[in-house]
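Recall that a protein's primary structure is simply its ordered list of amino acids. Everything else, from secondary elements to tertiary packing, is in principle encoded there. The following example makes that idea concrete.
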Amino acid sequence: MTYLAAESLRELPMPPYAFGLVAFGIFSLLLYLVLRLDRG
């Protein structure tokens, strides 16, 4: 069962560039919030 789960996780639910864009967006938002909170 564990082997089956590991096999199903090998295929990404979205293309690699989509993961990059999502990660970039999240990190940008976090950086913006941190800088904004630091200023205020």
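The chain has a mean pLDDT of 84. Residues 16-39 form the longest helix (24 residues).
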